[in-house]
């Protein structure tokens, strides 16, 4: 499975439907079910999920989580210094505006 095809497949899925159905993606079986709805076979998903590249990225993400002391999802970090959450910014749209401001400010 190529990353671009995976990104397109996820982009076509309505994330709200997961919440509406009460589905979570915290187990391998739920991930397989989610990706099968996007036309990705269990074998194809598992090959990507268990790949060295995926495991390395998960390890790096875990280290970043510890380094940045992530407390909430979604937390954005800009320039490795500014942590922004929807709560601290006053909402999701405001969070994106703060991020844009920090990115555009020299």
Radius of gyration: 16 Å
Q: Major β-sheet, in short? A: 2 strands, antiparallel
* CA-based shape: globular
The rounded distance between the terminal residues' Cα atoms is 39 Å
- Could you tell me the mean pLDDT? 81
Strand runs, count = 2
Number of domains as seen in the coordinates: 2
Structural class: mainly alpha
The proportion of residues forming helix, as a percent range, comes to 55-70%
Which descriptors apply to this entry?
106 residues, mainly alpha, two-stranded antiparallel sheet, 2 strands, 8% strand
Topology, element by element:
Layout: H1 3-12, H2 16-21, H3 28-36, H4 42-49, H5 52-68, E1 75-78, E2 82-85, H6 86-89, H7 92-104
Antiparallel strand pairs: 1-2
Characterise this structure.
By secondary structure, this protein is mostly helical. It folds into two domains: about 1-55, no CATH class; about 60-105, no CATH class. The chain is built from seven helices and two strands, in the order H-H-H-H-H-E-E-H-H. The chain has helices at about 5-10, 15-20, 30-35, 40-50, 50-70, 85-90, 90-105; strands at about 75-80, 80-85. Strands 1-2 form a two-stranded antiparallel ribbon. A hairpin with a 3-residue loop joins strand 1 and strand 2 (about 80-85). The protein is globular and about 45 Å long. The relative contact order is 0.08. The model has no long low-confidence stretch (mean pLDDT about 80).
Offer a concise description of the structure:
With 106 residues, this protein is mainly α. It has helices at 3-12, 16-21, 28-36, 42-49, 52-68, 86-89, 92-104; strands spanning 75-78, 82-85. It folds into two domains: 1-54, no CATH class; 62-106, no CATH class.
């Amino acid at each position: 499975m190529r990353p671009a095809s995976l990104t397109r497949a996820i982009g076509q899925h309505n994330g709200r439907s997961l919440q509406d159905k009460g589905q979570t993606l915290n187990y391998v079986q739920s991930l397989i079910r989610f990706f099968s709805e996007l036309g990705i076979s269990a074998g194809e998903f598992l090959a990507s999920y268990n790949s060295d590249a995926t495991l390395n990225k998960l390890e790096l993400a875990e280290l970043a989580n510890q380094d940045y002391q992530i407390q909430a999802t979604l937390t954005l970090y800009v320039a490795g210094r500014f942590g922004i959450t929807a709560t601290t910014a006053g909402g999701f749209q405001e969070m994106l505006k703060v991020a844009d401001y920090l990115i555009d400010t020299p």
